[in-house]
Design goal:
alpha+beta, Glutaredoxin, four-stranded mixed beta sheet, globular, binds FE2/S2 (inorganic) cluster
Length: 111
C-alpha cells in the first residue's frame, strides 16, 4: 500500500504573515527536505480563519492544528512529522467550530 502523504499547510495570509509565517514556511520546507521526509508536503494556505492565533499550521489528514507557531517550535514539529508525539502546547488554541470547518473544507479537497 502506498504511504499516506502528510500535508503541512502553512497560512500565509496577512495576519499570519505579519507574525512570520513566510519564514516558517521556508524553514519547514528546508527541514523536511533535509530530513528526507518524502511523505511530507509543505505548502502555503490562503487562510484558516483563526487569524488572531497565527501563525497557524494545519496537518492533514491527521487534522492537527498548530497555532502561535514560532521558529523555536520547528524542532518539535519536525520530530512529530518523523513519528514523534504531537506538540500539545501548540494545539487547542483555536475554537473547535473553526477547526471543524477547516477540516471539512480539507476533507472536501480544498487545499
Ligand atoms: S491569516 Fe492565518 S489564519 Fe487567517
Amino acid at each position: 500500500m502506498a504511504e499516506e502523504v502528510c500535508h503541512v499547510l502553512v497560512c500565509t495570509n496577512v495576519d499570519c504573515k505579519d507574525r512570520g509565517s513566510q519564514d516558517l514556511l521556508a524553514a519547514l520546507k528546508a527541514r523536511v527536505a533535509q530530513e528526507g521526509l518524502t511523505d511530507v508536503v509543505v505548502k502555503p494556505y490562503l487562510c484558516f480563519g483563526g487569524c488572531q492565533h497565527g501563525p497557524n499550521i494545519v496537518l492533514y489528514p491527521s487534522k492537527i492544528w498548530y497555532a502561535q507557531v514560532t521558529l523555536n517550535d520547528l524542532d518539535d514539529i519536525v520530530a512529530h512529522l518523523k513519528g514523534g508525539p504531537v506538540v500539545r502546547r501548540l494545539t487547542g488554541k483555536v475554537d473547535a467550530a473553526t477547526q471543524e470547518l477547516i477540516f471539512q473544507l480539507l476533507d472536501a479537497g480544498l487545499f
